[in-house]
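tool=predict chain=A
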Amino acid sequence: LPENRLFLIILAALIGIIPESGPHLVFLTLYSQGLIPFSVLLVSSLSQDGHGLLPLLSYSVKDTIKVQIFTTIFSLLVGIILYLIGI
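tool=predict ok
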């Protein structure tokens, strides 16, 4: 894994765009093994909408994109704040 936590935070937020819950399990496993810090796990948790986003996707693509943009930006902001604090 890269030593650059900021890269991992950005990667976790971008992977969170995938509307499935499976990718989050990878981050959970890595955290449980002590390979990534809590800030990366939290970013993954916040940005991951899981299967709950799929019904919205079938209803409105525009609203789905808005939700994804919000959760991605919010998770990145939280992750960067935790990164700056040192968590």
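Residues 5-85 form one domain. The chain has one domain: 5-85.
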